[in-house]
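[scheduler] slot 2 assigned
[scheduler] job type: sequence-to-structure, two independent chains
[scheduler] chain ordering preserved from manifest
[runner] begin chain α
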Amino acid sequence: MSNLNLQKAKSIANQYFTLLIEKHRALGYKVEVVEQTQNSDTSYYIKFTNSQNLSKLYEIQNIN
């Protein structure tokens, strides 16, 4: 993947997560970033929790 394509992918991902967060906040969800470590591997998630404490997790992939 060329640097230009990687930059475009990062831009699209940033816009997607921004819109996702704004949508869930407008619906009354609490938004937080969660870090989970398992066997020296760390994963990050955006967690959305509604007023009934039901949650959705979206994994944030690390692209270097």
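[runner] end chain α
[runner] begin chain β
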Amino acid sequence: MKSLLFLCATFFWTSLISFAYGAGPCNIYIHGRDAKLGSWDNLPHYINWNSSLELENAAEDLAPKLVAEISKCKKAPIFLRTYDYSSAVVYYILGLGRRYADLYPQHNFVRIYQATIAVYSFGGAFSGTPLMDYVCASGKSKAITKLVGEKCILSMTTAEIYHPSSIINSPGVPIYLVFGTHDREYGEEVAELLRGSGLTWEERYQNKESSRSDGVVPLASAMACENEVAITDVEGECNKINNDYFIDFFRSDEHSHSDLVRDRELLRGVYDEN
């Protein structure tokens, strides 16, 4: 696990990338379900897309905007910075782009896949959140709809059939995972849903186990776990959707991912295997 101290050394790594490609890296920022979270709209190469759509339609809306932004980066290496829902949508785009690269070289998905060096995912909703399950079931809780929106998005529920991993399992480029586990002081209804995510009744109430979450997205979702699992330990691990491409980059137990998306140094950090 990388610490914040590591980020001080990222400029050296970025310089190596710049030398190899003949240009500085180009970070493209793609907001999540809540476009206001993190105030990414004041960053260069920010994309505003329709995050209220289901996965396939969301990808179709995002892709041409992303291609247009990539073209502005000239020949610079492309790093995509995503969070919660946009992480899942970008994963879907890259996976299909990789699959059909030879057949449809001019398709937007293929162009995005071929241009992208890496993705940095902040609290990615790769396997959804039980909060959206509740919205889709009733949509009546003000506390929950305030966090994830009033509209039901099946692609953000925990139902595996709606996740991008039900269609693809390889993005073809590394996805570096950034996540936090601090859940702040949310209402008891919200906290109970998240604490019980992936746990049986016996595990939750007899064994008093609790699923780790940052207050919106369960840790297992942000860590791109293969199946809906409950990570109850601070150092908990899981089988990734694809161990070759999903890599833990930064974790904080003092912050939620909504805090981390405001960290300007972290938003520029790059992965170093050393």
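[runner] end chain β
[qc] chain β: The chain has a mean pLDDT of 84.
[scheduler] slot 2 released
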